[in-house]
Design brief:
Number of helices: 14
Strand content: 5-15%
Number of strands: 3
Order of helices and strands: HHHHEEEHHHHHHHHHH
Helix content: 55-70%
Distance between the termini: 17 Å
């Protein structure tokens, strides 16, 4: 994340200005989405620009090896042509589209049948595909994502959050995350999503370690300063592309809230957002924020007709899930203590 503020953590002038800018833009997006059909997203200039940028990003990894092959065949640089061609092949390999690393600590269906059955039942209620893997972690949050070329689906559940939720709140949380499979989020498509991921990978590759003259020498400082400029340019492209796609990100979250409320009931979805609201008392505004504010998400749900629950989680069934997850409690608490010692705040 790229946080804007003072070193002491207090909101600086730039942060205050950016917060006001984001909130004004969020208000305009919210007012627009209240009156639109979220289930049928329209083609926008932002989508076309994002698709164009993604195409340019992916084309670089295709063009470089072609240029390298041409250098080798045409002997463009004489005896050095082969070396230059191999170098371009190497660069193309390094900057190729990257996939997020597949999580290792997943829960097996054999050991956690009640949890998987519950999630599958919510998926059936929403008419969405079943989740491939579930991960329990220490965050006070939840998430959904695809990994790998085969687009394996993963559901992430934070143990501290899960244990604070009541039955219908759990239904709303799972419903919201599974809804991301059906809300046609343009930013999470393979083409655009992998392009954004490639930009973050390029930033990591080009970012210099330091600019210390005494330790590195003049030539190294000049080279690192040039790489710093390159990293900044890639970073600006990433931020700009993320801001262009802000409307789509917001639409996806509002729609996921609404779809989740259709299975849990509106009151269950509102209760979950209120829990997040109480837990996130202080808001850190950053340039890569995906979610709208909790206040706006609550306002959006309340602007719609109240929906009755489509799925009711039985108390005994909920207890069965907790009993399964109890075997993870000791390791989760140990990991939370370790992170707290490192300064992580839950």
């Amino acid at each position: 994340m790229i946080k804007i503020g003072s070193a002491e953590g207090k909101p600086g002038r730039i942060q205050q200005w950016y917060y006001k800018f984001v909130m004004r833009r969020d208000r305009a997006v919210l007012d627009d989405l209240k009156s639109r059909d979220l289930f049928h997203p329209r083609l926008t200039i932002a989508k076309m620009v994002a698709f164009l940028f993604a195409g340019l990003i992916h084309s670089i990894t295709v063009i470089l090896p072609l240029i390298g092959l041409w250098m080798i065949i045409s002997r463009f640089a004489g005896y050095f042509s082969f070396c230059y061609g191999i170098l371009l092949f190497g660069v193309a390999y390094v900057i190729r589209p990257q996939f997020y690393t597949r999580p290792k600590s997943t829960l097996s269906r054999e050991k956690f049948p009640a949890l998987y059955e519950f999630v599958d039942q919510i998926a059936d209620s929403l008419n969405t595909p079943h989740i491939d893997e579930i991960v329990i972690d220490v965050r006070f949050n939840a998430g959904f994502s695809y990994f790998g070329f085969r687009r394996t689906s993963f559901l992430f559940l934070g143990y501290p959050l899960w244990m604070q939720l009541h039955d219908q709140e759990r239904v709303a949380l799972i419903g919201h995350e599974l809804a991301h499979q059906m809300n046609k989020d343009f930013t999470h498509t393979f083409f655009v999503g992998s392009a954004l991921n490639s930009l973050t990978h390029w930033m990591y590759l080009t970012r210099p370690d330091e600019l210390n003259y005494r330790r590195l020498g003049l030539h190294a400082v000049i080279g690192n300063f040039f790489m710093w400029i390159v990293t900044g340019g890639i970073q600006l492209i990433y931020i700009g592309l993320s801001q262009i796609l802000l409307y789509e990100k917001r639409r996806a979250e509002y729609l996921a809230d609404y779809i989740g409320s259709s299975v849990s009931g509106t009151s269950g979805a509102i209760d979950v957002l209120n829990i997040f609201q109480r837990h996130q008392q202080s808001i850190t505004v950053n340039t890569l924020t995906d979610h709208p504010s909790n206040e706006y998400r609550l306002e959006f749900l309340r602007s719609k007709a109240e929906l009755p629950p489509k799925y009711v989680l039985d108390l005994d069934y909920s207890n069965r899930i907790d009993k399964e997850l109890s075997v993870l409690r000791e390791s989760i608490e140990a990991e939370m203590k370790r992170l707290q010692r490192l300064g992580y705040i839950f």
